[in-house]
Amino acid sequence: MPDWQTPNSEMNTAAASKVIIATTEAEKEEIYRLRYEVYIEEMKGERRHTEANAERRFRDELDDYAVQFYVRQDGKILGCVRLNLRRDGPWECEDRFELEKFAPAYPIQLTMASRFAVHQAARGSVVMMQLCCALAEFMQKHEQRFCFLDCHPKLLPLYSRLGFRIYKPGFKHPKYTYVIPMVMVFGDLEYFERVNSPLLPIMQRYPQITVWRDLLLRNFPAAGHTFMSPTVDVEAFWGLLGANLIGPTADIERPEVLAGLTEGETKHMVSTGQVASCHAGDPILCTGEQGREIFLILEGSFQVLGEISPHDQDEMVVRILVPGDIFGEMAFLTNGRRCSTVVAMENSTLLILNAKALDRILKAEPQLAYKLFRNLARIVETTYYETILL
């Protein structure tokens, strides 16, 4: 029995007093059923997650040696998350994370967090934070140095706020969708303070160690600046956008999506975004996937692929996108299901506009909402006519 697995072991931190580590098959079965509700039924993930079965349970081979955390209230599991320690077995897509470069912490002191799921009734509650605090406490107690995850673009604000950082370009997960590798470095108190992480009080109870941060930046220099947001990397974020997008010396004409916006409105809207990079050949969106994020191209180019006909599964290039163009707008405006595949033609940089943050701004500022929807309507119209003329 692994050293963490004590019967019905409950995390005894004040912040996570209701978080339990599952030790029985009955507990794990409840977790798999909650996952099914969230990932398969709610997120329409039946095509992506083929491991799910007719018994309404969602598990895979990584569950065989994972630590399963969950929160229960009134007899019902409200949230769960899975943690895999690399010392217990290999992970999916290890080559894309370049784990060997994290030696000497590799393989004994590396963890992977995945399969976060929170019941609809518990969204907006403390459940998610309880789980995250329990994970942090557990990893600190077990002397883990790095925690990894493959992040969907829409979740970048959440995980970056916790203290994860992008350290290399994203990739198309062979089973799911386009994801971005992120890593949390334990002992780097300066970074947790910089992002104002809610995990900081836990991290402060343990020694500050910079050797692991230094190892990350030595092997992945881009980790020092690949994630840029207006709250974390203020100067770098606005410097990049000023040079490429909205400044008087910008390399491109003002993007059509920002046409007519005042300087204040422009900054307010783009402040919902995070900067991320991708490699040539990366499929950022795939037809049929879920997601409402809008992607604004800062550097590089992309090709948009569409079906030749409803009866033909092959795709053809229908548009070429360049800096200043956007993609993903149709799903933002409609039901959140992607209608095209978009592939990077070269190493590129994107500003990913978070859909929920945009929704909040547009609800609060009707004048800005009017301008944005007008611009999006023009873009959709142009795209339509360009496509039917092919």
Count of individual beta strands: 16
Distance between the termini: 62 Å
The biggest beta sheet reads: 8 strands, mixed
CATH architecture of the largest domain: 3-Layer(aba) Sandwich
Write the CATH homologous superfamily of the largest domain: Gcn5-related N-acetyltransferase (GNAT)
Give the tally of structural domains. Answer: 2
Sum up the overall morphology in one term. globular
Q: What is the percentage of strand-forming residues? A: 15-25%
Instruction: Report the order of strands and helices.
Output: EHEEHEHEHEEEHHHHHEEEEEEHEEHH
Fraction of residues in H or I helices: 25-40%
What is the CATH class of the largest domain? Alpha Beta
Topology-level CATH name of the largest domain: Aminopeptidase
Which structural class is indicated by helix and strand composition?
A: alpha+beta
Low-pLDDT ranges: 1-17
**What would the average pLDDT be, to the nearest integer?**
87
What's the gyration radius in Å?
Answer: 22 Å
Q: Total helix count?
A: 12
